[in-house]
From TrEMBL:
Alphabetized UniProt keyword annotations: Cytoplasm, Glycosyltransferase, Purine salvage, Transferase
Assembly and interaction partners: Homodimer.
Lineage summary: Bacteria, Pseudomonadati, Pseudomonadota, Alphaproteobacteria, Sphingomonadales
Name of the protein in its database record: Adenine phosphoribosyltransferase
Location in the cell: Cytoplasm
């Protein structure tokens, strides 16, 4: 399937979670076997082109696409978790949200010094979570130069934020004006 055909599988839910927001729902994409397979294949080709030695995904939807890309390429998967989810000593990073802060954590032994890690997630909007994941993985000693997304909402500036952190950003689909 082409990216344009995949884009048709994304459901738009108006006014969620608040009026004026056009929510891009991937549930319809992941529920469509050929569409999901094609999406993973496109992301996997891009990840392979980066020379990645491991794939990282943020909880929760980044686990869907990141783990699938990891399996497809035969690479390790690094889960970047919400706080308190790992039963071991972790490293973490706090980051700003629109109202308040949040935190991401990971096992510091999940990466090795200089290992090339590509970050994979379903969507980039403002980029705060992705930027925090990049900082966290880098703090563990890995090299993060690339991030891949199924959907980019370019008007929200997340891709530009990551590029400012010296990360190459690639997305399969864009939805302007959101």
């Amino acid at each position: 399937m082409t990216p344009d055909e995949i884009k048709q599988l994304i459901r738009t839910v108006p006014d969620f979670p608040k009026p004026g927001i056009q929510f891009r729902d991937i549930t319809t994409l992941i529920g469509h076997g050929p569409g999901l397979a094609a999406t993973v294949e496109h992301l996997s080709q891009r990840a392979a082109d980066t020379g990645a030695e491991a794939v990282a995904g943020m909880e929760a939807r980044g686990f869907i696409f990141g783990a699938a890309v990891s399996v497809r390429l035969g690479l390790p998967f690094i889960p970047v978790r919400k706080p308190g989810k790992l039963p071991i000593e972790t490293i973490g990073v706090d980051y700003a949200l629109e109202y308040g802060t949040d935190r991401l954590e990971m096992d510091p032994a999940a990466v090795s010094d200089g290992q090339r890690v590509v970050v994979v997630d379903d969507l980039i909007a403002t980029g705060g979570t992705a930027e925090a994941a990049v900082k966290l993985i880098r703090s563990a000693g890995a090299l993060v130069e690339d991030a891949l997304f199924v959907i980019d909402l370019p008007d929200l500036g997340g891709s530009e934020l990551l590029r400012g952190s010296k990360v190459n950003v690639s997305s399969l689909l864009e939805f302007a004006g959101d």
